[in-house]
Structures are given as C-alpha cells and as structure tokens.
Amino acid sequence: MTRTAPAKLYSPALLGLATGLARFPLTGDLPLRAEARSRSCGSVIALGLAVDEEGRIARIGMQVSACAIGQASAALLAEASAGTDPAMVCATADRLAAWLAGESDLPDSWPGLEPLAPALAHPGRHGALLLPWKAACEALSQGAGSR
Description:
With about 150 residues, this protein is an alpha+beta fold. About 35% of the residues lie in helices and about 15% in strands. It has a single domain, classed as Sufe protein. Chain: A (Alpha-Beta Complex). It has helices at about 10-20, 70-80, 85-100, 125-140; strands at about 30-35, 45-50, 55-65. Strands 1-2-3 form a three-stranded antiparallel beta sheet, covered by helices on one side. Helix 2 (about 70-80) runs parallel beside helix 4 (about 125-140) and helix 3 runs antiparallel to helix 4 (about 125-140). The termini are far apart.
C-alpha cells in the first residue's frame, strides 16, 4: 500500500497570502466594525468595512493576530471583497464551515481558496480559518439598514 504525503500546511502559497494583509490596514474611517476571537486557538481579528451606495463592499481593513492559516484566510477575504455583495461573503463563510465539518467540498464560490485546503486535516486551525469570515458577516450585518 502506497501512502501519499499529506499536503504541507504552511506552503509557500499560503505564506505568501499571509503577507498580503499589509495592503488592508484597519483605519478609523471604516464604519462597519466587528471583532472576533477563536476559542480553539486564541486568534483575534478586528475588522472594518465600508459599503457603497448599492450595499456592496467598497473597502475592508483588518488587524489580525493569528497563525498563517488565519492570516491567509483573512487575506483571501480582503483581496476579493471589493464590489462583492455581502450575501456572498456570508454564504462563503457558511460553505467554509460546512467544508471544515466534512459536509462538502472546498467552496469554489470565492477565488483562490485552494491554498487553505491542507488546513482541513488540522482541526486546531479551523477556528482561525473561519475567523475573518465570521467577523466580516458580523460587521456587514450592521450595515443592513444603513448606507
């Protein structure tokens, strides 16, 4: 029986994503705010968003204290969020949670999630991976009636 080696958790692609967070600083002019903490690993995120007149995400900023998995997940969210409908962000969050629970495949509804795939085999990293998505959904829920 031949065993294939599991995919490397901290791949160059994942680490490269994590460094991309510097392009999305948390600034004081982002009106929709949320903070979240992972119970499983202690990761923390503070996130701010602004939406445009159509309710789509216009800007995003984050302050992330997490492992490279959490940082990469946050960067993937930030990089593709401009112009996105808030419902897509929250639907992707739900799909990611279902994937991590073993109920579905890695979502293809958001670009670039493939580098996160090795995290499936590391339940201790699941909380960090979901953290930015949960914070974004919480922040976006504040903007439902205010533009």
